[in-house]
Amino acid sequence: MLFKSDSFSDCYVDLIRHVYEKPEFESAPRGLKIRECLGVKFQIMNPLDRLLYVPGRNFSITYTIAENLWYLLGENDTSWITNYAPFWGNISDDGVTANSAYGARIFKPHPRIDNGMQTQWELAFNELKRDKDSRRAVIHIHTPEDARVAVKDVPCTLTLQFLVRDDQLHMIVSMRSSDLILGITYDIPAFTIFQELMALKLGVGIGTYTHVSNSLHIYERDFKMCEEILDSGHTTGPEMPRMSSEPNVKWLNGLQWSAKSCSSEKDLVNLFATSLTTSDIDEYTMDWAKILLAHRAGKLKLQDRKTEYLKSTKFSGYHQFLR
């Protein structure tokens, strides 16, 4: 079955309704009960409309930005991402790294993929530069070694494939397993950002995003949330602006660690003011910076500052996540 929508929000609610109300199976992997549909395919016609404007899901824009920054840096250190989502520390097999950190397998050489010879990102890019009609621009995430070695943190994603057709970059993602509540919610924004970055690098337009989930499921613990989502529906929100250049992830990384060291409102205000004077940072990157600084304001219980920083973002879609 194919679900097709212009936006992620439209598609998400349709998927929740289908899996929750019309599951093909009820099973219990690892003793955890799920409702499940197999071989589900969905397509988002406008991958820029990637944010989840679904009140019942309580989507975190802060975590979205932090996770994408973590991926783009090629990091797998759990001490980095647990500042924004403690669950990464809970699923780490060694207590130090995240085995399923996508960025470490895409943007840096990885020992389990091609013996760490090169980054898969550059390999895919070079393939499409060599032959724009190629079907070989495939990034592998899950490996046979993961099935043997990993215990708690086995990557759910199998492959990411990029195809250029009629000067538009299309992306197809294949997953062995997809949790509709925890996984899909944040995977789609991340994958479509990868798609946008590759299109930017190739100098082509953005085509469709297609996602194939071999097991698309909802855990019993989230059944009540699904009912709330279906009751509340979703709101409309703007698509994200297209990047004019790649986000300055090194600057953002330095900024987020500087923010973490702020222990007072004065420190944070000074850091915010300093960041605004960085003349060579584009608006897209600056919006991410403001979201990271808002996160620190929240940690310091400076709610007014948090609201101020979020409201100062140029992209109005971020304003819908003010709480």
Structure in words:
The chain is of the alpha/beta class and 323 residues long. It is built from 13 helices and 8 strands. Strands 1, 2, 3, 4, 5, 6, 7 and 8 form an 8-stranded mixed beta sheet that branches. A hairpin with a 6-residue loop joins strand 2 and strand 3. It starts with a strand and ends in a 12-residue tail after the last helix.
Layout of helices and strands:
Blueprint (H helix, E strand, L loop, with lengths): L1 E4 L2 H14 L3 E3 L6 E11 L16 H12 L5 H4 L5 H5 L10 H5 L13 H11 L7 E3 L3 H6 L7 E9 L2 E8 L2 E2 L3 H20 L2 E15 L3 H10 L16 H12 L4 H12 L6 H17 L3 H9 L12
Parallel strand pairs: 1-3, 6-8, 7-8
Antiparallel strand pairs: 2-3, 3-8, 4-5, 5-6
Helix pairs in contact: 1-9, 2-8, 2-12, 10-12, 11-12, 12-13
In summary, what is this structure?
This protein is of the alpha/beta class.
